[in-house]
Design brief:
The protein has 1 helix and 10 strands, in the order αββββββββββ. The chain is mainly β.
Length: about 170
C-alpha cells in the first residue's frame, strides 16, 4: 500500500472516529414522495425549545410504535432549510438518544394517517432549524452515531387541517 493511500485511510478512520464521538449522521434519505417546492416560500432560521414530548432510546434491531396527536399543540417552527415548503402546523418533538459508540440504521415512518391531514417528518441534530438533516413526507432513514437527535412531526401549511392524530413507527 502506498504511503499516500495509507495516510488517506488513517485520515478517513480518524474522521469516522471523530464523527462517532460527536454524534454525527453518516447518511440520510427520504421517501422520495416529498412535496414540490412552494413558490415564494422563504425559510426563516428559528431556534426553538426542544423539550421533547418523549425521549426515545434507539437500539439496533428494536422496532417501536407510538400514537401521537398534534391537535391543539403549539407551532414554534414555520419551516426548515431541508424542505422547500412551509410547516406552520403544530409540531410534536421527540428526542432520539443513541448510545455512545453505537452506529445504527434508523428508520421512521408515519402510518394510520387521516388522508385529510398532511404531517411530515424532520430529523435535526440540535434545537435550531438550521440543524435540519432531512425532511420527508412520510418516512426517512439515517445512519446515526452516538448522540442526541430530534425527530419532529409537523403539519404542512397549505392544507387544512394541519393538525391531528398519527402513528409513528421507528426502528
Amino acid at each position: 500500500m502506498s504511503p499516500s493511500r495509507n495516510a488517506l485511510l488513517v485520515l478517513f478512520g480518524a474522521l469516522l472516529w471523530s464523527a462517532s464521538l460527536s454524534g454525527a449522521v453518516l447518511d440520510v434519505s427520504g421517501d422520495g414522495d416529498d412535496k414540490p417546492p412552494v413558490p415564494g416560500f422563504v425559510y426563516q432560521r428559528a431556534p426553538f425549545d426542544c423539550t421533547p414530548l418523549q425521549t426515545l432510546t434507539l437500539t439496533a434491531g428494536l422496532e417501536n410504535s407510538l400514537v401521537g396527536d398534534t391537535t391543539g399543540g403549539a407551532s414554534a417552527i414555520d419551516g426548515y432549510p431541508c424542505a422547500p415548503w412551509p410547516e406552520a402546523g403544530p409540531e410534536d418533538i421527540y428526542r432520539l438518544d443513541v448510545a455512545a459508540g453505537d452506529t445504527i440504521q434508523f428508520w421512521a415512518g408515519l402510518t394510520n394517517l387521516d388522508p385529510e391531514i398532511d404531517h411530515d417528518l424532520f430529523l435535526l441534530s440540535g434545537c435550531d432549524t438550521d440543524s435540519c438533516l432531512i425532511g420527508a413526507s412520510t418516512e426517512l432513514t439515517a445512519v446515526l452515531t452516538g448522540g442526541s437527535y430530534y425527530l419532529i412531526v409537523d403539519g404542512y401549511s397549505h392544507r387544512e387541517p394541519n393538525e391531528g392524530p398519527y402513528t409513528l413507527d421507528y426502528k
